[in-house]
Amino acid sequence: MDIPYTSKPRPDTGIYNAKVGIWLFLASEVMLFGALFSAYILLRVGAPEGTWVHGMLNIPIGTFNTFVLITSSVTVVLGWAALQLGNFQKYKFYQAITILCALGFMGIKSFEYADKFKHYEVWLKNPVTVMHGDKEVQTNRVLGHIEYDGKHPYFWNTRTLREKGIEGFKFEADPYHYTLSPKELAHAKSVSKGKPHVVLDIKTADVERLSAFVPSHSTYFAVYFTLTALHGLHVLGGALVIFYIWGPGAKMWKSDPLRYTNRVEVSGLFWHFVDLVWIFLFPIIYLL
Amino acid sequence: MQATTHTAAHHGAHEAHHHEPSFLQKYVFSTDHKVIGIQYGLTSLGFLLFGFLLMLCMRWQIAHPGETIPVVGKLLGSILRNMDGSLMMPDGKMTYDVYNIFGAMHGTIMVFLAIVPLAFGAFGNYVTPLMIGAPDMAFPRLNMASYHVFLLGGIVMFASFFIPGSAAQSGWTSYSPLATTVTTHGQAYWLVGMVLLITSSLLGAVNFIATIIQLRAPGMTWMRLPFFVWAQFVTGFLLLLAFPPLEAAGIMQLMDNVFGTSFFLPTGLAVGGRIADASGGGSPLLWQHLFWFLAHPEVYVLILPGMGIVAEVIANNTRKSLWGYKSLVFSALAIGFISFIVWAHHMYLTGMGTKISAFFQTTTMIISIPSVIILTCLFISLWGGSIRFTTPMLFALAFLPMFGIGGLTGLPLGFAASDIHLHDTYYVIAHFHYVVAPGTIFALFAGIYYWFPKMTGRMMSEFWGKVHFIGSFIFMNVVFQPMFAQGMAGMIRRMADGGLNYSKISHPDAIGGLDKIYIDLHTVILWGAVGLAISQIPFIVNLFVSIKKGKKVTSDNPWEATTLDWQTPTPPPHGNFTKEPVAHRNPYDYSLPGAAKDFTPQNQP
Ligand code: HEM
Ligand SMILES: [Cu+2]
Fold first, then answer.
1. pTM > 0.90
2. Ligand 2: distance of its center to the CA of B342 in Å?
3. Which of A72, A134, B22, B480 has its Cβ near the most Cβ atoms within 10 Å?
């Protein structure tokens, strides 16, 4: 028994089965990410003054990663085009770049993640004096890095302090805070570049709340991690499929070249979608 | 029409160049849409029974608050455990927690593990490719995967009963922040289970739609598709587009529950008298919007396949074409579109403001129009038919008024003014059960009796089928009709012991307490439910005994039907048709003037 139209297009619809399938699947993906983006908008619009985090991500790295993904989108098309012309070697070459780009993207993303997991905010019971750029300010919300036992620990929160019985720790305070307006924040970042950190001695008894930049830090980071992790899963899934077709599944090129080319096309469509999601994600999460 | 002899020869040839598949290949890892359909069918029937038994325990509790549950009380008492390992209900008396758990899981299981997989997974899988003249689904292996993911989701849901703290207890709607602040882990299991079930539905939906678009036999144009196929087609789109937002919401609630985020937790939320240790800033309403954005289309997922089945059975048993085929098709499509813009009628009491509420009231009234058109077409189809009162037909006929009652009672709910009184009362319970239980479930029974001979080559017993029908029909109404009265009197749903509703029993002059008569109706409902349970015994026995002992069919087309699913060998082999079918005519060419018989199959030139 053979299923019709697995490789040749059906005359009246003009496409083959898998392409119908992938477009339908992408429609559902649009709804999935659409719902998450809508949730982002709703939560952001409803956020009380001063609680929405902004300017805490590394824009140059994010931009670089955007280019990595765009490059992969181009090589996916080039690979498929080469295959259509029967040039299997060229396809192998381009698609290898695609896979490397995917790995590169994930690698860079994991460094970004790790960076956040050891970057903290403390809510203090009493205000302390820190610098915001070139101004001295009194505030009870400070960003920075914990130094404890000569290390910069990951994932601490208020409960960690209690559970570990820590009485106090050193805190390298950042000279800015997201409660500043975007303009002030940019100014503070630029004037403080290269200057040494103010180091605070913080007693656990003075801490109201402590949180690394993890999902539970704030709605912003909740959205950031959920969206980027879900996107990351898609990158990973897409890369695995592309790799399978490229490597172990390449035998099909000999037995059924048309179907093989279709597979490459379909996986490429998915890959474009994954890139497209990032093109939306990047500005709304990094820049806005 | 005697394709049976054909099959034997065909089969022989088949086996010559194929080795005999092992048990696992044949029944567990099969990619044959018919086997997968039957897998879905048996699994979901099992869950249907299980969900029903949960409800029976709850009906006992609500009619006899705090009394030991007969028969199963002791057993449940020895299974369900608290977080600290102690027994939840050691004396077999249902506690509030257990009531909440059973309620939440009854709803979840019935909707996502029983009705949808039976209506879409089982019937859709078994019948759709046959009806459109396809050898299988467009993506057979994906089809197998969707069943396996579904099964896994079902196992996760079922297993969650046995963990300490037991299953989810925040209702099938799982409203936040309740669903996050309950301290047991059942909700996390629920969410993981849901993500699996949703994934399975999405794979299934992609497959169904692609199959219908791509694998229609030559000549099977869109307007020659049986209405059943149209219903499945629209259902597929509803699942495809409405489920992902719930998946998104599920992921966010999982983040709330496991990683301590505050997607749905407002600022300043206090739990147990203490400010919750959370960042806050989330929105409980966001959950409701995302949930109902799925769950309203979902109710049409529950009903459309049922309408499809009923349409087939009615055409076959009136021996005439469906009246208004085009109206049926366009109404189904209209329902599909409009069902995406009515969701907030479940949220009138959230304070949405009159303008938005006016919008949703309007769309809700508009969507009832295509539903009424479908029902009307089906009613008119009966007119002048020479009706055969077979068991499937009895169920299909009963579907019509039952769905009618369910649909009409939805209208007062659709107006915000009347909904303020009716919201969250037993009236709502009665409304949607009329649509789903005597509605969809009757349609599904009709489908089972109707296609059983195709699946097995044997008929189910007509006599026991009729006994099943009469019992079910009476007791369904005994169970659900009183709820309208209770709800209008103000009885609140989801109460383990009636709460203040019952206060008149102890304080006869209590204000707002319900009169005794409404409370006593619970006893009527309880025994109605027991009667309903007993009425299912003939069905269960009939179903299994008929597989081996039922009367053998004498032809491949025992109901003398026109659609292509009956123009196959019985049961259809892998690949379905002995030669590629071609559709030459409309799906319901019954009693054509001048034709040799009172039915002319679709593939007859
Ligand atoms: C035909 C027109 C229909 C209208 C106008 C309608 C209207 C409504 C409204 C306004 C509610 C919310 C009531 C409240 O919570 O206060 C509701 C609840 C419900 N309806 Fe319908 N409905 C219709 C058909 C259906 C169908 C066909 C189904 C399913 C097969 C269905 C299933 C449900 C369910 C499950 C609920 C309750 C959900 C819950 O709160 O747990 N309805 N309906
Ligand atoms: Cu609704």
1. yes
2. 7
3. A72
